[in-house]
């Protein structure tokens, strides 16, 4: 996969690209990341990319002609162009899965007051990473790249992410490691007896319990299996 990031602040990505799983994925040619400073698509001698808002008001608006030139120069028939914007569709794991199947992503980072509205006609998607406003699209572009790269073949093992929260529609079950007892709190004995059938059942039940408590909205449209319905009944009785 190739990810092109259009940004005014390429240096913000230095740490992101040079550590841990992202660095390893780049080194192993699983992903190629290109940072493109879209100032180079400005057509004035001072490299301006923004201007004051029509109608007045605070801040600066990124010009649509600059971004259009940047998109045209970088897109090909395989590209999927996503605008980072708090007004976009809310980012979720299923969108990460969808994006991980594309051959090339172009992520456009805004700054200041955001973009000239007309740029929306030149992109394939608009994504928000949450109902809050950041100073720029660089952190959203990192969050999206990170969540997509970890799903690519050989970035991490499939087992490392297939039980993660959201990948099967629930929050992940509780995880423990040594010491077995800490400050009077003991690891559940079922995890220590090596019985894989019981461990699987315990984990599914605790996933359901956590999701019910913390994110009941995730269960609203779920088609439950017979086993899940039975475990939910048990949980309800236990919590009474
Ligand atoms: C200060 S914000 C502009 C917000 C814009 N004036 C609005 O109210 O919708 C600057 C840039 O940060 C990025 N950004 C901020 N919050 C974001 C979020 N929650 N998700 C995705 N991008 C975001 C976008 O690229 C945006 O153009």
Spell out the key features of this protein.
240 residues, alpha/beta, Alpha/beta knot, Trp Operon Repressor, Chain A, five-stranded parallel β-sheet, two-stranded antiparallel ribbon, 8 helices, 9 strands, binds S-adenosylmethionine
Give a quick summary of the entry:
The chain has 240 residues and is α/β, with parallel strands linked by helices.
Describe this protein's structure.
The protein is of the alpha/beta class and 240 residues long. It folds into 2 domains: 2-158, Alpha/beta knot (3-Layer(aba) Sandwich); 166-239, tRNA(m1g37)methyltransferase, domain 2 (Trp Operon Repressor, Chain A, Orthogonal Bundle), CATH 1.10.1270.20. The chain is 34% helix and 17% strand. The protein has helices at residues 14-17, 20-27, 64-74, 93-100, 138-149, 158-162, 196-214, 226-239; strands spanning 2-7, 32-37, 50-51, 61-62, 79-90, 104-108, 125-128, 181-182, 185-186. The strands form 3 sheets. It has a 5-stranded parallel β-sheet, sandwiched between helices. A hairpin with a 2-residue loop joins strand 8 and strand 9. The chain is elongated.
Task: Describe the largest sheet.
Answer: 5 strands, parallel
Approximate strand percentage: 15-25%
CATH superfamily of the largest domain: SPOUT methyltransferase, trefoil knot domain
Order of helices and strands: EHHEEEHEHEEHHEEHH
What is the CATH third-level topology name of the largest domain?
Alpha/beta knot
Strand line-up of the largest beta sheet: 2-1-6-5-7
CATH class of the largest domain: Alpha Beta
- Count of all domains: 2
Query: Quick check: average pLDDT?
Result: 96
- Small molecules in complex: S-adenosylmethionine
* Oligomeric status: single chain
The coarse silhouette is elongated
Tell me the total number of β-strands.
9
Q: Considering DSSP H and I runs of 4 or more, what fraction of the residues is helical? A: 25-40%
Rg over C-alpha atoms, rounded to the nearest angstrom: 22 Å
Number of helices: 8
First-last Cα distance: 50 Å
